[in-house]
Design a protein that fits this description.
5-stranded mixed beta sheet, MutS, DNA mismatch repair protein, domain I, 3-stranded antiparallel beta sheet, 157 residues, alpha+beta
Length: 157
Amino acid sequence: MFLELTDRSLILKLRSLGAGVEEADKTKITLLEAAYFADRGVLPMNKDELVEKAAKDDPLAREKYFVIKYLRDRGYIVRPSLDTTKYLRLHRKGYRPGEDKTYYLIEAVPKDWKASTESLLPSLELAGRLRKELTIAVVDFEREKPFFIKFGRMNFD
């Protein structure tokens, strides 16, 4: 779900921060991105209301917001996928979307997540097709940061 913004000064500010997608005279921004920027004082909205609204359609919205906040606070640009999949996309530090490709697909999961080969295969296959690295972000709200598990490819030639 997206918010559409038409205030030119907000659009320019969000563009400088690597957020939103411009379309003609407006910018679309996901609810979770909007929540982060509301928390930072960039958008005049209520962060908790935006996260709650996102949680109606996405049961992992709170976990995704936790990961977005953690990475954005450290200078990374991380955005929910625009194709409404469950993944977050992480760009290299110092690059904005459109300047460089996405390097990682991040899947946020709760702390009681149980991994199996069958549950990981769809995510691994998608990351492989997109030529991205897959990272699982295990979110425990009692800890200060998510626990990241990175999956990569290997060749035994």
